């Protein structure tokens, strides 16, 4: 049965590592980035220490999330090399990797495919009008660049996670347009495993002055997304951004079936701590939902993995 089957809600036991917080973009809702040169890059030695501590904690996924070095910067190669090496190290130490580090060149994406069981990039919103507002100083947020990443992931047969950021100045029509674009890309390549619906949740570092996305509207958006997206794409919601327990249940009832990576810290929304799996299970129980762990790659994509990645995935499948 597919993981999104009735009464099952999934999550990925994960740990997020950040190669660097530096980023050449300036999205005004960002609560993550620092100035270029102000965030020392994560060394392999430090990463190894972290991975050693994570051993025997039942953590499967290492989510590699990074600020971006400009594609034409002389430091890009070193930045990319560090990300690649961190993936190799995580795999060598028995974890499964999922990388989301912004737009990549074709050859960068091709190379990361060999050391990741899946990858991701939020489409956010396709409307170009955000380039005049929240994305005025964020060249990586060009809608055509991000759409192309989705296409390349499909051509390269990379199991992919994407999603929408809700409440950053777009309209309802923009949501349906972005979801339709994801659906169309998936119908060409069958490569999207999850779509995240992430409500804007203000944090202490951002300059964007806008209220949080209305959580009570989320079930409605999920229900419509469920109509637009093919059934083999799971809808993911970040449970730490939906404070009210009954509304979390309403989101599940509306069609969300995945809670994403549950990590000690939400690096993108550091002001919103994650509830851990037992607590989430007890919230879901009254709705008769069972929370189960999943791997960062869904079984229908196993045949896209190299023999060595597949071997590691199969070891984890025997455990979960
Ligand atoms: S949201 Fe992402 S791309 Fe935008 S500034 Fe922050 S780290 Fe950079």
From TrEMBL:
Positions with a binding annotation for [4Fe-4S] cluster: 23, 27, 30
Any Pfam family: Radical_SAM
Keyword Acetylation in annotation: no
Alphabetic keyword roster: 4Fe-4S, Iron, Iron-sulfur, Lyase, Metal-binding, S-adenosyl-L-methionine
Gene3D superfamilies: Aldolase class I (3.20.20.70)
Transmembrane segments: none
Cofactor binding mode and count: Binds 1 [4Fe-4S] cluster. The cluster is coordinated with 3 cysteines and an exchangeable S-adenosyl-L-methionine.
SUPFAM superfamilies xrefs: Radical SAM enzymes
Cofactor(s) of this protein: [4Fe-4S] cluster
EC number(s) reported in the record: 4.3.1.32
Reactions mediated catalytically: 5-amino-5-(4-hydroxybenzyl)-6-(D-ribitylimino)-5,6-dihydrouracil + S-adenosyl-L-methionine = 7,8-didemethyl-8-hydroxy-5-deazariboflavin + 5'-deoxyadenosine + L-methionine + NH4(+) + H(+)
Span of the signal peptide: none
Its biological purpose: Catalyzes the radical-mediated synthesis of 7,8-didemethyl-8-hydroxy-5-deazariboflavin (FO) from 5-amino-5-(4-hydroxybenzyl)-6-(D-ribitylimino)-5,6-dihydrouracil.
Name used for this protein in its record: 7,8-didemethyl-8-hydroxy-5-deazariboflavin synthase
Gene that this polypeptide is encoded by: cofG
């Amino acid at each position: 049965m597919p993981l999104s089957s009735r009464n099952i809600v999934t999550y990925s036991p994960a740990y997020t590592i950040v190669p660097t917080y530096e980023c050449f973009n300036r999205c005004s809702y960002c609560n993550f980035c620092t100035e270029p040169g102000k965030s020392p890059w994560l060394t392999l030695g430090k990463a190894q220490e972290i991975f050693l501590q994570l051993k025997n904690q039942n953590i499967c996924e290492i989510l590699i999330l990074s600020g971006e070095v400009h594609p034409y910067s002389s430091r890009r190669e070193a930045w990319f090399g560090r990300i690649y090496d961190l993936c190799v190290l995580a795999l060598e130490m028995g974890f499964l990797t999922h990388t989301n580090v912004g737009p990549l060149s074709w050859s960068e994406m091709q190379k990361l495919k060999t050391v990741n069981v899946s990858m991701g990039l939020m489409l956010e919103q396709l409307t170009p009008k955000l380039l005049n507002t929240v994305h005025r100083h964020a060249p990586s947020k060009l809608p055509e660049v991000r759409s192309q990443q989705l296409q390349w992931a499909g051509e390269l047969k990379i199991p992919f996670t994407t999603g929408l950021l809700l409440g950053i100045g777009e309209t309802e029509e923009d949501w349906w347009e972005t979801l339709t674009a994801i659906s169309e890309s998936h119908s060409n390549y069958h490569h999207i495993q999850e779509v995240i619906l992430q409500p804007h949740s203000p944090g202490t570092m951002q300059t964007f002055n806008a209220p949080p996305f209305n959580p009570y509207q989320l079930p409605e958006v999920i229900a419509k997304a469920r109509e637009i997206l093919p059934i083999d794409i799971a809808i993911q919601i970040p449970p730490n951004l939906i404070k009210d327990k009954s509304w979390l249940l309403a989101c599940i009832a509306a069609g969300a079936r995945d809670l994403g990576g549950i990590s000690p810290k939400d690096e993108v929304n550091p002001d919103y701590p994650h509830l851990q799996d037992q607590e989430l299970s007890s919230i879901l129980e009254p709705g008769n939902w069972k929370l189960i762990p999943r791997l960062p790659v869904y079984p229908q994509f196993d045949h896209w993995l190299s023999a060595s990645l597949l071997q590691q995935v199969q070891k984890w499948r025997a455990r979960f």
